[in-house]
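Fold this: Kinesin motor domain-containing protein
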Amino acid sequence: MTERPVKVVVRMRSPPTELSRGAPRSMEVQRDLGRRQATSVKIGDERMEFDQCYDETATQHELFRREMAAAIPLAFDGKSTTLIAYGPSKSGKTFTVDGSTTSAGLVPRTMQRLLQFQHASAPLHTIQLSVLEIHRNKVFDLLDSNSDRTDLPIRQSATGSVVVPGLARLPITTLAHFTRLYEQASRAQSRQSHKVVTFSVQTTGVDGEPKSGTIHLVDLARVDESRRRSLQPRSSDSSSNAMTFFVLGKVLSAINEGKSLAHMPFRDSKLTRLLHDGLCRDVHAATLICTVSTANVDDALHALQYAAKVRLPTTYRSPMRMASETSPPPELTPTLSSLEERLEAWRQS
């Protein structure tokens, strides 16, 4: 299997009531005979290929071990890793990222392993945490306790890296300290916003030069195909998020196609601007993890088609007529035209 710059992973969950019935399912993870890992999903009559697939038997520990554990030592070597979670509501997306009180998700497990690695290697390493959200195309610091929230700018430093002036980057020394801060950030998060958690590791190489590694974990706002198709008026949240999903898909597809940076529309959304360095500078790995539930096949199909297009942008063709090949869905065209006009005005400013 060809190694792609952006790995695409699927995690599928099934409601306990569905599992208890034992009836045939319209969607399931399939494992080829003789292969240790599952890499395909069967949905209806269609079989879709991905880099890795997990069903409801996969644990949080297994997912972390396979998809994130290797990033920990490399962060101390100045490398970047980005994992983006995408999926409909009730698909287990936020559970995958944050977990629960009894089953920690990717974010707390990453923090715990970073601290363990720091204590085992050298005390000179420092680990910093930042948590922000993008809501209605505005950037807010979720670690800022002030009630008067400020829309933070996104800048490019003299060295070409992306910076967010005013964003708190707090040093973390214990898991308890992290837990308090992260719970504060989660309480402050708006509904239907994109959350970006960044761990920054500052260290010194054997040559005495400073190194900075990063791990970005992104919990995207939910995407619901059934709501997208409804006749109800679209909210500001939905319109803004539709544009973000569209641009993110174009960027990730362009990376997997091997296009030059000049042909990647990073500047077309605030999320992709923020993730530029995590996807293009000293990168160890980038992963899109698509979470779906067998309880809602329509939403699952839409999410899987999006993920499949990212993985094989030039060859994927769905027999079920994928909603978007090279252009946004027709019903989004007026919304996107308006957003693109606002985007151009924002660029000029």
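The chain has a mean pLDDT of 85. The CA atoms of residues 27 and 43 lie 4 Å apart.
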